[in-house]
Amino acid sequence: MERISSRDYGYEKLVLIRLYSFIFASYYEGAFCVSVNRGYLEKLVADVRASVDVILRITSKPYKLMSEVERYAVRYHLIVIAEAVRAMVFHFVRRVFRVDVESFSQALQVLRERGFIGDRECEELIKFVGIEEFVGA
After folding, report:
1. Which one of 39, 46, 81, 107 is CB 3.0 to 4.6 Å from 101, fit for a cystine?
2. pTM
């Protein structure tokens, strides 16, 4: 019986996104809480957490047993995660660092230049958010 591997749905990337959502959520609780919309970020973090949980639940069964609806649900939730991460990064860069950027990669560059993320994380986030085009958004 074929089981879906955690790598098939980018489990490492999902964990990375979940980790960064927590970092964003905790980072703004410090000196930056005046400049960010806490409720907005909390909603985005909740969206990421919920989507990761759904994806992990669905992909815990063998691939052949997944219905077409479940496969589309995984695609949908990957898009939800990508959009939430994109929104968090833009909000954070614009509100905390007061830099107006036009693209997601530019926003990540700001975070990388300020030492908030490393090169590998930056590249992984660009790839992950690019999955939106791949899965048909």
Report:
1. 107
2. 0.73
- The DSSP code for 114 is T
CA geometry: angle 128, 130, 134, nearest 5 deg: 105
Residues in Cβ contact with 96 at an 8 Å cutoff, skipping those fewer than 6 apart:
28, 32, 35, 36
How many CB atoms lie under 10 A from the CB of residue 52? Answer: 20
pLDDT of residue 17: 63
Cα diameter, the chain = 53
Model pLDDT for residues 95-104, shown as the tens digit of each residue: 888 899 999 8
The three-state DSSP-derived secondary structure of 23-83 is HHHHHCCCCCCCCCCHHHHHHHHHHHHHHHHHHHHHCCCCHHHCCHHHHHHHHHHHHHHHH
Q: Is pLDDT of 4 > 50?
A: no
Amino acid at 58: I
